[in-house]
Amino acid sequence: QVDLVESGGNLVQAGGSLRLSCAASGRTFSSYAMGWFRQAPGKEREFVAAISRSGGNTYVTDSAKGRFTISRDNAKNTVYLQMNSLEPEDTAVYYCAAKMASPLGSRVYRGYDEYDYWGQGTQVTVSS
């Protein structure tokens, strides 16, 4: 069992930056691959970025490549999403998710249904 709490969402102007944080409870954070998803009003939840257990492998969705960076600090039980050059289209509730992952390999997960635990979300609003 792991509890996830996101923070860092805010109202920002287009072109601005935000850093989202997701703090995890428990002592086994490094056993989990992590991901960020977002959901805009009236739309389905979509994948944003993922990171492997160790942090050695990451993946960012095409629409955010070059603007968003995912990272983690296993000593602090926290995963981050650095978002630069924000656009109004990035407006959404952002969720972090955790998946228990094999210690072999450095896989990342992009499917919504692959994750075991979810946070409550944090609102990001980008004004034009």
Mean pLDDT: 96
Number of helices: 0
Shape: globular
> Which stretches are low in confidence, meaning pLDDT under 50 for 5 or more residues running?
none
Outline the structure in words.
The protein is mainly β and 128 residues long. It is 0% helix and 47% strand. The chain contains no helices and eleven strands. Strands 2, 4, 5, 6, 9, 10 and 11 form a seven-stranded mixed β-sheet that branches. The protein is globular and about 45 Å long. The N and C termini lie far apart (40 Å).
Task: For the structure shown, list the relevant keywords.
4-stranded antiparallel beta sheet; 128 residues; mainly beta; 11 strands; globular; 7-stranded mixed beta sheet
Question: What would a concise description of this structure say?
Answer:
The chain has 128 residues and is mainly β. It contains no helices and eleven strands. The mean pLDDT is 96.
Write the layout of secondary structure elements.
Layout: E1 4-7, E2 11-13, E3 18-24, E4 32-39, E5 46-51, E6 58-60, E7 68-73, E8 78-83, E9 92-100, E10 117-118, E11 122-127
Parallel strand pairs: 2-11
Antiparallel strand pairs: 1-3, 3-8, 4-5, 4-9, 5-6, 7-8, 9-10, 9-11
